[in-house]
Amino acid sequence: MSSSTLQAPPNRWLTLTTVALAQLMVILDSTVVNIALPSAQADLGFSNGDRQWVVTAYSLAFGSLLLLGGRIADLIGRKQAFVIGLIGFAVASALGGAAPDFGLLVAARALQGAFGALLAPTALSVLTTTFTIPKERARAFGIWGAIAGAGGAIGLLLGGFLTQDINWRWNLYINVAIAVVALVGSFFFVHTAARTGERPKLDIVGTILVSGGLFFLVYGFSNAYTDGWGNADSWGMLTAAGILLIGFVVWISRAKNPLLHLSVVLDRNRAAAYLSIMLAAVSMFALFLFVTYFLQTGLHYTPIQTGLSFLPMVGMLVIAAQLGTNFLVPRFGPKVLVPIGMLIGAAGMLWLTNLDLHSTYVPDVMLPLMVIGFAMGTIMPASMQTATLGVQRQYQGVASALVNTSQQVGGSIGTALLNTLAASAVTAYIVDHAPATPTVTAEAAVHSYALVYWVAAGIFTGGAVMSGLLFRRRNQGVSLSNAHAPVTGRTATIPSEQAAAEPVSAH
Question: Angle formed by the axes of helices 12-28 and 102-130, to 10°?
Answer without folding.
Answer: 150
